[in-house]
Amino acid sequence: MIASGGIDAAFARARAERRAALIGYVVAGDPDLATTLAVLEALTRAGVDLIELGIPYGDPLADGPTIAAAGQRALHAGIKFADSIALVAKARARGCAPILFFTYVNPVDRYGAERFARDARDAGAVGAIVPDVPLEELDAFAPPLRAAGLAIPQLIAPTTPPDRAARIAAASTGFVYLVSRLGVTGARREPDVAWITGAIARLRPATELPLAVGFGISTPAHVAAIGAVADGVVVGSALVDSYAGFHGDEAARRAGAYAASLRAALPRQD
């Protein structure tokens, strides 16, 4: 297993291997905590470099049908905010790849931002993506997370004007998350690789952070195309779909096999 390091180490390892980093997204507690832990271990064995762990939430603004349904399954199973944090501690103790949370402002506020930052750090999480915090409110929201040493990657949408995109990139830590298309997450439409290539080229001068691309990436061919130009490739809905309806070892086997097919598709970068 890939056991050590955080976000910087994960991207550095990928660069040393002349490839993009593979970032997987799963929902904590879908369909139960034991299965999620087994999936996290399988993804690590398959060579996933970083893992985004979605905290189940009833109003997930950026999530498409697949991830929203996974969140509902977890909520119906009784998964609480604190359960997601405890899961990270177990996963890191077992040598899983670095984990950052994917969550929203309301659940963090309810839990308490300072408590969240402290507990996430103590569990071994390396960051948090909170997509509904606008740039103008980041300085009010982020201090507890920054003080705890957690990275806060920011999302840049296709409609973001270039000057604003540069400011968002400058405010990011860990990496910059480039959203490949308008709308919510999902694996049904083909990513526009030509647009993604241009967007990455435009963002390069604005930041020294790695640029990762997500939303709508679901096949080895997608990973190969985007991995040729980006520093990281994020796969979420299709990964969740790969083991939906299964539990335990079978869910882990399916998730691991799917992740391994993506990892093998990453091209060698010049």
Task: Write a short abstract of this structure.
This protein has 270 residues and is of the alpha/beta class. The protein has 13 helices and eight strands. The chain is globular, with a radius of gyration of 17 Å.
| CATH architectural name of the domain at 7-152 and 232-265 | Alpha-Beta Barrel
- The proportion of strand residues reads 5-15%
CA-to-CA gap between the ends? 27 Å
> Which class best fits the helix and strand makeup?
alpha/beta
According to DSSP, the number of beta strands is 8
Helix content: 40-55%
* Count of helical stretches: 13
Give the mean pLDDT: 92
The CATH class of the domain at 7-152 and 232-265:
Alpha Beta
CA-atom Rg in angstroms: 17 Å
Q: Provide the spatial order of strands within the biggest beta sheet.
A: 4-3-2-1-8-7-6-5
Anisotropy-based shape: globular
Largest sheet: 8 strands, parallel
**CATH homology group of the domain at 7-152 and 232-265:** Aldolase class I
Which blocks of ≥5 consecutive residues have pLDDT under 50?
183-187
CATH topology value of the domain at 7-152 and 232-265: TIM Barrel
What is the H-and-E element order? HEHEHHEHHEHHEHEHEHEHH
